[in-house]
Structure formats: C-alpha cells, structure tokens
Amino acid sequence: MRLRTPLRRHQSRRYTGLVVGAVAVLSLAACTGSAEDAADDENSGSDSAPAAAAGSNDEEGDQVTIGFSAPAADHGWMAAITNNVRDLAEEYPDIDLQVAEGTNDVNLQISQVETFINDKVDAIVLLPFDGAAMTPVAIKAMEAGIPVINVDREFDDPNAARVTVLGDNYGMGVSAGQYVCEQAGGDKDAIVAEIAGIDSLPLTQDRSQGFEDALSECGLDVDARQAAEFTVESGEEVAANLLQAEPKIDFLWNHDDDQGVGVLAAIENAGRDEFTMIGGAGSANAMRAIQDDNSVLKATVIYPSTQGADGVKLARLLVQGKAMSDLVEVEVPRTVQLYAPVVTSDNVDQFIDSAFES
C-alpha cells in the first residue's frame, strides 16, 4: 500500500511559516532607494538612473561588526562553513568580521558569545555546538540589542534568534528517496540499504524519516540500515559489516560524504558494484567521483556549507536596515531554509565550484 499521508503531513509541519526555500534567494541585489527619491529623480529631468536601478544591497554601506562562532573544523563540511564565512566577509569592505576559534566545548563557546556581547558587536552569527545549551546566552545577546543569526543547529527558544538559517535534513531524505524511486522505475522488489549518521541526533532522525517517507510513495522500504558516526573510519567499518550481511543491494544511501570516503573504500575492498550509491551533503570529492563515473556513486544530496556565509550576509542586511530584494517584504525573514537538491552527472557542473573538500 502506498502511504501518501505521512509525507505530506511531515512536510507541512516542517515547512509552515518558512519564507524562503533556496540558496538562490540570497543573491541580494536590491533597490534601496525610496519611492520619494525615485519621484524626485523623475521630476528633475536628470539623466541619472532611477533609484530602483541605482541602488544595490551589495554596494558598500555603514560599517558592520559581526561576531562569528562555530564548532571545531574537525569535519570537511564544518571546515567549509568557517572558510565560506571568511571568504564572504572579504568581499564586503563594510564587514568587520570577528571570528572566534572553533570549539566543541560548550562552555568556551558561551564565553565567546559573552565576549561579543561585551565588545558590543553589531550582530552575532552562531552555529552552536549544542543549540539547547547555547540558548540562554543567545537570549542574553538579543536582550542586549544584538541580533543573533542562528545557523544549522537550532536553539530551543525562538526568542534566542532574530533569524534562523537552516539546511533541510528531512528534505535531504526526501530527495534521496525520490531519486531511488525514479531510478527503480517501478521495481517494487528493489533492495534499499541506508548508512545513517549518528542515530541520537535529530538531524539523522529527520534524514531517515524523509528517506522512508519518500520511498513509501513508490512502494519501497529500507531493507537494511546501519548507523555510522560521520567519520571516514566509522563509514568504512559500518559499510563493511552491511555488505557482508547483505549479499545483494540495488540502492544504498549514505547520509554523509565525509563518512562516504570510508563507505566507498569498503565497497571497493568488497569488490561490489551491483548497486547505485547516493551520497549526502555534497562534497567536492563525491562530485568528482560522479563526474568520473567510475564507481557506484552516482549522486549526492546537497546540505549547503554556505549556511554560515548566508547568515553573515543576512546579519549585514539587518544592521544596515536593508531587506531581501527578491521579496516584497521590507524586513529580513525570521527563517531561511535552504534547498536539498540531488546532484548527478547531468547537473554536477552547477554545484561543484561551491562544494567542500572531505
């Protein structure tokens, strides 16, 4: 029986109130002049461009000091988060970026945010090591009049952030599952395996739920599932165990391209090539393998490593009193959720330049 209801209900619950759903929405060319200014220009008979054409959110504005804190760069995706933030800040001479050293110590990250508050920065962009633990200090910053942009790992109180920038973990699972359904071509006997990340994390649970819901739409199930730890070593160990237990697989979804390096090593060691593998997060090495077309890896699902940079860009707009030009709304949205597209050989050239290295 095809179970359509859970997919629609889960998507509706997760996406209600989201204002934006794609990375492209952060291309922030904008008109910043007022209607009165435009009218003055028109009435003056001058040859100058109207305000709508003359202004841009990317033009230099008032100096903005932004504090940024994230976990330690002990993972390719996390390293890319901070690297992309630094690269973005270099493009804007009006951004004074203060980057705290990456840490997986919650108490140290709390003290970093307290330093930003004491220094009276204009905004704080924060990817918490632990969203719940960082919530009180984020609220403290907000109460001090410093807007907080929460990235990736959510606080447990909506009042702790002015803006939240998220990837789409449930959507990753949906995208991977829909790709499997398309490739299966109606074969309801296809054997589907899954190598997840850390099972105790909500992000892993969301990815698996999305995958399961999407597969149910074409009458498929997850026949074999094991969890790894988002590391190369755990990926290789778990994949070796799964391959030994499953003599035949048609599709394998691995949640994370960093641990996917180990997964692919195990597959090669086992001499298995009868199935199609789908990756997760969108690393550059995964995309190169897709381009080369010489392994079982044929696709990966994006989990953008641009989230921190997007947060900095939004912080700049907030402090400078600007909005997002592609929207009619005159304020920066409360929530921005980025899309989770599937990358294949057909579109890999579109994504590889912004991909992170595992």
UniProtKB/TrEMBL annotation:
<dbReference type="InterPro" id="IPR028082">
    <property type="entry name" value="Peripla_BP_I"/>
</dbReference>
<comment type="similarity">
    <text>Belongs to the bacterial solute-binding protein 2 family.</text>
</comment>
<feature type="region of interest" description="Disordered">
    <location>
        <begin position="36"/>
        <end position="63"/>
    </location>
</feature>
<feature type="compositionally biased region" description="Low complexity">
    <location>
        <begin position="45"/>
        <end position="56"/>
    </location>
</feature>
<feature type="signal peptide">
    <location>
        <begin position="1"/>
        <end position="35"/>
    </location>
</feature>
<dbReference type="InterPro" id="IPR025997">
    <property type="entry name" value="SBP_2_dom"/>
</dbReference>
<protein>
    <submittedName>
        <fullName>Substrate-binding domain-containing protein</fullName>
    </submittedName>
</protein>
<feature type="domain" description="Periplasmic binding protein">
    <location>
        <begin position="66"/>
        <end position="322"/>
    </location>
</feature>
<keyword id="KW-0732">Signal</keyword>
<dbReference type="Pfam" id="PF13407">
    <property type="entry name" value="Peripla_BP_4"/>
</dbReference>
